[in-house]
Structures are given as C-alpha cells and as structure tokens.
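User: Ribonuclease D. Structure?
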Amino acid sequence: MLSYQFINSDVALKEFCTHLQISNGLALDTEFMRTKTFYPCLALLQVYDGINLALIDPLLIDDWQPFVDILKNNKIEKYFHACSEDIEVFTRHFDCVPENILDSQILASFLDNPLSSGYATLVDKYLSIKLDKSETRTDWLQRPLTDRQCLYAANDVLYLLPLMHKLKSLLFDNGFLNAAYEECLNAVKRRSQSPQADEAYLQIKNAWQLRPIQLGYLKKLASWRFEYAKTHDMALNFVIHQDILWSLARYQPKSLSELSALGMNGKQLRLFGDTLLSILKKASEPVAQIKRMTDYPDYKKWSTLIKEAAEEISMKTGLNSELLVSKRHIEQFLRWHNHDMTEQPEILTGWRGKLFKRILIKDE
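Assistant: Predicted structure:
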C-alpha cells in the first residue's frame, strides 16, 4: 500500500521542509484548475524525496516560506514532467521559479522519444509500470479529495524520481546529459517570461493577415482584453473571443449594431460595447506588419538547408530531428540572418551550435 503524508497545516509543512533540506533531488508536481480563469488555481502540491512523499493542501496553508526556501535552494535538483504550467503556478502563487529544474520530458527527448511524451508512457517504457490515468480530468478543488485522487496524485511523483535517475543514467552513457541540462535551463528561462499586454496581439490567430493600420487597432484591442482578463481573472476568450477581436480590427465598426453583426453577444455589448467603440474611434498608430518566415526572400533556401542538416545530424547522433530543430529555431535564424534580430539564434549557440554552426556559417 502506497504511503503518503497529507499536509494541511503550517506546522506540518515546516517540519516536512526541514527533512527536504538534505535532499539531492525532489520530484514535484502540481494539480490545478484553469477552465475559465486567467490564472491557474493551485489545488494540490505533490513532493517526493525518495523516502517521504507528501500531498500538500494549498487551501489550508498560510506560511509558504519554508517551501519557497526549498524551491530556491539550487543545491537540490527539482524534477518535473512537462514543467511549463508548473512554472506558471509557482510564479503566480510563490512569486518564484524553482532553481535547478530538470524536466523528464526534455531528458527523454534526448533518447529519441517524442518531444511531448506523456508521463505514463515514459514510466511504462523505462520502469515497466502501467499507471492509471483515469483521474486526469478530475475536480482537484473539491474537498475532501477521494482516495483515488490522492493515489493518482501520489503516483505522479512516486515514479518520477526513479524515472529521472534512469534517464540521467542513459544520457550519461550516450554523452548528452550536459546538453539535456542546458536544454532544461533554456526551456525554464523561456517559460518564466511573463506575457506582456502590448505583445498580446501577436498571439491572435491570423494577425499576420492584417495591414499595419489594422494591426494598430488589434494591438490596442488585444492589450485592453489582456489587462481586463488579468484584473478580473478571466480566460482571454471568455472576455471576447480572439476571432471577434480580429474582426473588430479588420472592419473597425462604429456602432453597437455593427459590433453585434461581428459576433458580440448581448452581455458583451452591455459590458464592453462603449469601451471598444471608444478604442476604435481613436486614431491608431500603424504597427509594422507581422513578418512570417515565408516573407523572407531566402526562406526556402535556409529552411531546406537547416532541415537537411538536422536529418544528417540525427543520423549521426541518434537525436530526434524534431528536438534538433523546431519552427522557432528556423524563424530565429532567418530573423538573425536578415538583421531583424541581433542576438545569436539558439541553433548557433550551446549544444546545438556545436552541431549546426560549421554547416550553417559555412553556407551563409
């Protein structure tokens, strides 16, 4: 029978964290709810150090400092699986990003696994243990939690620790452990960057189709929606759907009836109609048209060369070509090569640079 401690008081959390201080590595996971909200609502924390496994109830804890001290201790490795949303949770609730994060999904990708390999899939492959994933869509904010929920949550860290030990051992043997560490560090840096209101328009689908003056309106509209969603803790599309926002920027309606014709419902018209018309009434500063990769004259040349290089490197190293090069890497390189970006692209730095630089710089 799996044994775990359920922590629901400041005293118990402080005592548990005292034991964690001497640990070399911790398996961590979070359960949260985020259906209609801007921010994730933390519902449960799971921690396992190889001896003690705890389920921490955040709804009953006031003093998080002992736990934050653990997160900030860079002598302790923190093991996650697919950590991007966990990082957002920690940033939101504890105002910090855990130090020394390793992501099992990233480590596994250096062993020719798909980039988005699931936790249960990896546990089955490397530990020969099949996990029950039936509680994936459960309500984690309900209290009391059921025994099945607690078992599911505990298993998410119970097997993560031996999985990470196995992955690290295999990566040490194939020579890519340091590269995997570097990839985790870079991923955490990217995922720790908070989205900004004035860049929200870049996330609107098909924004690139709009002309500069229309993009100016979209930038204002998306910025307003972003700030409203943050202030009222609402999911962006629950304020106004991005498709409607795009249409407002495209057609610049001048009346409530025109807003309605573009898809806004009665409640949205009452709440936001006058505000949106006011935004659209003001002259908009043109915004430079969003450049797509295909807009660069040398797009086909470099895209083909980089992908062919990735296939060649994949054959030699055994690394997944999807890990070696993504759409983001190609876009970064094109922007840098065409002087739209001064910082060297990822494909020319770090472990990727050692593999790609001689090919790409030679052919530049």
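The chain has three domains: 5-191, 197-281, 293-362. The chain has a mean pLDDT of 94.
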